Amino acid sequence: MSLPDPRPHRVGFLRGPRPTGLATDAPSGPFFAPPLRADGLAVDSPTGNRPILHNPVIRALILVAALVLGLGGGSALSTLLHAPASVVMVSATVGTVVLYLLVVILIEGRRPFELAPRRWPGLLIGLGLGAALFTLSFGILLAAGAYRIAGIHTDLPWALGLLSLGLRAGVTEEIILRAGLHRLVEQGLGTWGATAVSAVVFGAAHLTNPDATLWGAIAIAIEAGISFGLLYSLTRSLWVVMGLHAAWNVTQGMIFGAAVSGTGETIGLFDSVPIGPDLLTGGDFGPEASIVSVLVLVAFSAVLAYALVRRGLVVAPLRQRWRTLGHPRRPDATPRFIGHASTRG
Q: In this predicted model, what pLDDT tens digit does every residue of 247-256 receive, in sequence order?
């Protein structure tokens, strides 16, 4: 085990304290995650000594059951009470969050660092990132003549739009895809493998939308699936990724009035009309299928990937961790892996 590097090291967006290899539950800011633990896993992995319950496959099955119960139970109860659509969406979202927290606390035996209340300012950072990234992408499309603003709508159903595009999509999809799929796969395939898997699933999930296209799903996987996964691994914060996802959708649909992920026409503050080729406008799928959006978010993903490597936050695949720190089934192996770290996250 190496000793900490005593040399001073500037803290910034792409730089931070050199990892020491020591297990840690040191507090971090609302954006960056703390260093990896001694077992090579991140702070949002299980702790304790429950090999069955902490097995990623078993945890995945439990989490899926909990999320289905949370989503379905909240929606069913609101529908049974003949509640309006906004109440149904809020109930389903709250149910999802509550059931996820119960799984983390009772099954994984840890504090939910990814949703820690003290890290809520990460939500503001995510909202700013999401709004800025889409505004940049759409601004390029306007400048290139791919879209034009035909008018302004002042009477909008803001509440329903914010709940649908922001709360429901930003919260439930990030819990399912990032805190669920990405986090569990990462324990076996590492950060890069988990990012690839969750991105593919994220893109494929959009194939069911009314105006979905194969290219649209591929574009979503490349731009949003990869960047959201890398952002989660860099921050270990659902606050940040939920904020980015929600703000991207709301800025796209409610502000600029562009189609969101092939879900049909959206009425926004601005009446945006596509006038360029589908390669630029994204066609019926919307700007997320535009080559401009893909390139903007690929550049963003490259920055995130560099930051992950620079800060030593990349989780290695399971076999690589075994080779480095010892196989958990060998008597002389220490520490043990996947759910056997002694510190709480």
A: 999 999 889 9
